[in-house]
Amino acid sequence: MVYHDHQDCGFWTLPGGGVEEGETLEEAVIREVKEEVNLYGKVQRLLFEDEYEYGPVYCFLVNVNGSQDALLGYDPELSTDKQIMKRLSWIDLQQMKEDIQVSKVISSLA
Length: 110
Known about the structure:
With 110 residues, the protein is of the alpha+beta class. Helices cover 21% and strands 31% of the residues. It contains 2 helices and 5 strands, in the order E-E-H-E-E-E-H. The strands form 2 sheets. The protein has a 3-stranded antiparallel beta sheet, with no helix packed on it. The protein has a two-stranded antiparallel ribbon with strand order 3-4. A hairpin with a 2-residue loop joins strand 3 (41-52) and strand 4.
């Protein structure tokens, strides 16, 4: 998970982001994982689709090579001094089960 530090709040979240013009959903999630945590992966399956205040949300299960090291990436839409991703950590999903998206991931994996 990546830690987002906004001026008024901070929170842990799963890597993700928007779909760029011409991308499929699967291509977008692979690009976002690479940008945010420097891991290469392969989409296994769609876990769930939901509505969010800014539009639809799609959550995918992505397999990554276990020999890769996760490294904090960047948001290319933001300048170097305006980056909001501050940390990353492997966090057991059960520790984050109160998070709406994580609870849906847990339900989808059950």
